[in-house]
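Working notes for the structural subgroup meeting. M.R. asked for a predicted model of this chain before we commit to crystallization trials. I am recording the input and output together here so anyone reviewing the notebook later can reproduce the run.

Input as submitted:
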Amino acid sequence: MKKRAAKAKVKKATKAKGKTARRAKAKKAKPTRSAKARTPAAKRARPTQAAEPPTPRRMQNAIDAAREWLGERRDYFGYLARRDATRGAPELSRHLRGDLMAKQGPDGSWNDGDLAASAEALWRLLDLGLGSDSLAVSRALDWLYARRDVEGAYGSGCTPARHEQRTCEHFISGFFSPGPSDEPQEITLSNGQAVTSDISARLLASVRGLRSALRASPLDPRANASISGLRGLPLYLEYGGTFTPPVLVGALQALAWFQGGHTSELKAGLETLAAAQDKDGVWPNVEFFFVLETLLEVDHPLAQRMRQRLIPRLLETQHKYGAWGRRHLAAQTWIAVQALERALDELRPGGR
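Returned structure, recorded in token form:
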């Protein structure tokens, strides 16, 4: 009995020893994670293909795919794509224009006095072929200017901090109110830019209203006070800080429609924006397509250079079916199409 037990004990020890040996052999043959981590990066890295350069042919293919995707839509962005291709655009524009005009309120606004929505609706009416002298446009402008400097407008009221920053009613005025000061404001633009800060939302909604008003009637004397207020803001030399980047971008967009964009504030703001553009062509803390939309409206060499740096990223991020973006597909796709077409135009001999 004792002899049998001793034999079993030896057999068990031999089996354990063999198992330990096999583990040691496997460990030696296969590096651990820590060993992999110590392996030089050059040995670990897999060979990658160089990014395809943004050639004119590649840009045109991207444009064609995007226009085909947009052209299937029966909305505002589908109309913009059809307008250049003359594919049933007049009929669609009449339909969309009539729908927008029917939704305009008795006071000239849209969405029950929503400042940002009303500014967007006015912009679209102009795109859809409605003249600046039309009743709908005139009523919209009257409503916008009636919102200026009323309670809740950016700059109204005063606090010690705002007085020190010179951003209260003692120093600035001319801004449109999106609503009473006790109603927190947020804003989401069609290009995808969202702002949740109350103060930033009020200011951004105001500059969007001014942008539409200047496009509709650039010589309207009522715009002078709003332009003066916008130019007086201390935001053009700093990216972020007191004023968030979307506010800077929105201000530049509005200024682009004043006197052809030839103001010292616009130039200073563009220089600030250019300095903040990273090596991939994007900007921190602001929607990529919002900046691109603004650069398309600004006629300045700095804007052109920034747009050109964006082209590789546009080509790399296009969906296989032709669109860009996620939640704001149509708007962002249309912005991308315009940017690529502008870039192609600038590549041609004699292109601007």
